[in-house]
Design goal:
By secondary structure, the chain is mainly alpha-helical. It has two domains: 40 residues; 65 residues. The chain is 69% helix and 0% strand. It contains five helices and no strands. Helix 1 packs antiparallel against helix 2, helix 2 crosses helix 5 and helix 3 packs antiparallel against helix 5. It is globular. It starts with a helix and ends in a 7-residue tail after the last helix.
Length: 106
């Protein structure tokens, strides 16, 4: 059983469950980023290689690939969610940089 499932079963505090879920998801995001770098992908942070609109369009495309069917849980590819998370992270950091704003949560 995963640490996350164990924490949920034990009735751990929400903050502990959030942390474990985030930790697990970040690990999967890192694996996917590493895989894509080995395939020659990269440069999301560089306007000369990838502009912000391109990141937005990629995010939108991946979001629409999820699973429009009625039984979307069965049809959904969880790897698409990892791609969406990574693209959202790229776009977030590009927008924060362009707007020169803080990372503070509002």
């Amino acid at each position: 059983m995963s640490r996350l499932k164990e924490a949920i079963k034990r009735g751990s505090p929400d903050s502990a469950i959030d942390y474990l879920a985030l930790h697990d998801f970040i690990s999967v995001m890192k694996e996917k980023l590493s895989q894509k770098r080995k395939e020659g992908r990269g440069g999301w942070y560089n306007d000369d290689e990838c502009d912000v609109l391109e990141l937005y369009n990629l995010l939108s495309e991946h979001f629409h690939k999820l699973a429009p069917e009625d039984d979307f849980i069965e049809a959904m590819d969880p790897h698409q969610l990892v791609d969406i998370a990574n693209l959202a992270m790229f776009l977030y950091h590009r927008i924060v940089t362009l707007k020169d704003c803080s990372h503070d949560i509002e």
